[in-house]
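Intended use. Records like the one below are meant for learning the mapping from a protein sequence to its folded structure. Do not use them to infer anything beyond what is encoded.
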Amino acid sequence: MKRSPAPRCLPPAQDHAARFARQREADRTATAEDYVELIADLLREEGEARAVDLARRMGISQATVTATIGRLQRDGLVETKPYRGLFLTEAGRAMAEAAKLRHDLLVRFLIAVGLDAETAEQDAEGLEHHASEKALEAFAAFVAKREAEGA
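Structure written out for the chain above:
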């Protein structure tokens, strides 16, 4: 017979507010991370990244992509060149690399705990933006231990 988990008590209001603030910030940065990661992938795989490619791969309108690219330019993450598409700045490349490393770690972790590769890829897409550094370190240690054991 399964035991019910102990009821959770609410944390102090200040701690609770800090948790929600962290999640709101993660939501704000998730879009930028998704865009720069996809631009980096397109540049690596296809040699170019265009707004139309982002719209098609993300399943959104080109107008939405254009507006977001404008914000990413203002934030210093993306550059556009007439008739040449999209390019990442140094800051954009650093963000894309960090997002890719988190994504890859989460995929490896989810597979290590028993998920199939396709589900792990899908779930990692959202989790990568919300896992804390402390959680990522724990996931990395777990994966490293499993890989060292040959599992």
